[in-house]
């Protein structure tokens, strides 16, 4: 058992050494994205924990490169670390929510692409998938931005504020029409600032299944924002029931 433990530690050390620059690049990008005034080393430490989690969970038989798989775990681990930091300005938490929801949307999209057989999608299917992802990001962004009360919000033009309030009203109405699990995920994640994994665990479902339900909910909310059905998501809606 001791020999196995030593070998595991040595293997993890090799992974850290090989990918530390990758983790630092993600940490620097998030530091700028979130407007953080903190030590880069703290963010890198969070990111390295995500890297090692990715290393433990990575399945080389799947159709995805390790860095692609690890990217979302590293980014998510750093965002989780930021969530735990005390006395951060309100605008940092607002940006953190946006970054966290975007990471969740993009990770689900990446997993869907990885699960598809090579060359299975033509140009039209690929364009539809991209449109669906962008639509979910739009809905996630608006949800994440609801309720902000910082200098950036107060400095917006009156027309922008009116438009955002209308979008917020439509979203709140649409959230009320979601099915119970969709509503629980959306309200817990976006309105109550709970960790996505915690809400999924409380609902008794896996993170993977919760991601599908989350994607379906954002598709419905995107329709509420745009006023037109997102027909490209019909397949997802049928498989996530």
Shape: globular
**What percentage of the residues does DSSP assign to strands (E)?**
under 5%
Assign the CATH class of the largest domain: Mainly Alpha
Order of helix and strand elements from N to C terminus: HHHHHHHHHHH
Query: Largest sheet at a glance?
Result: none
- How many separate domains? 2
The name of the CATH topology of the largest domain is Butyryl-CoA Dehydrogenase, subunit A, domain 3
Q: What is the CA-based Rg, rounded? A: 19 Å
Number of beta strands: 0
> What integer is the average pLDDT?
76
Write the layout of secondary structure elements.
Blueprint: H1 2-33, H2 40-57, H3 66-84, H4 90-115, H5 123-145, H6 151-154, H7 158-176, H8 180-191, H9 196-203, H10 207-226, H11 234-239
Characteristics:
globular; 2 domains; mainly alpha; disordered N terminus; about 240 residues; disordered C terminus; Rna Polymerase Sigma Factor, Chain: A; Butyryl-CoA Dehydrogenase, subunit A, domain 3
């Amino acid at each position: 058992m001791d020999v196995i433990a030593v070998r595991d530690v040595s293997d993890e050390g090799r992974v850290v050494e090989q990918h530390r620059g990758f983790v630092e690049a993600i940490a620097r990008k998030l530091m700028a994205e979130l407007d953080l005034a903190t030590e880069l080393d703290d963010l890198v430490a969070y990111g390295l924990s995500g890297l090692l989690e990715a290393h433990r969970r990575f399945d080389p038989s799947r159709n995805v490169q390790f860095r692609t798989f690890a990217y979302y775990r590293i980014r998510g681990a750093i965002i989780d670390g930021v969530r735990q930091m005390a006395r951060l300005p309100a605008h940092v938490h607002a940006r953190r929510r946006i970054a966290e929801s975007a990471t969740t949307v993009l990770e689900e999209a990446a997993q869907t692409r990885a699960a598809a057989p090579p060359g299975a999608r033509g140009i039209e299917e690929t364009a539809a998938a991209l449109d669906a992802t962008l639509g979910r990001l739009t809905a996630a962004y608006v949800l994440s931005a609801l309720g902000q009360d910082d200098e950036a919000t107060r400095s917006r033009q009156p027309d922008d504020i009116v438009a955002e309030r209308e979008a917020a009203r439509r979203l709140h109405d649409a959230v009320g029409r979601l099915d119970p699990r969709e509503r629980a995920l959306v309200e817990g994640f976006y309105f109550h600032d709970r960790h996505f994994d915690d809400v999924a665990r409380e609902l008794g479902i896996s993170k993977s299944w919760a991601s599908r339900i989350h994607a379906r909910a954002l598709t419905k909310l995107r329709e509420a924002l745009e006023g037109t059905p997102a027909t490209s998501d019909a397949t997802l809606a049928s498989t996530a029931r």
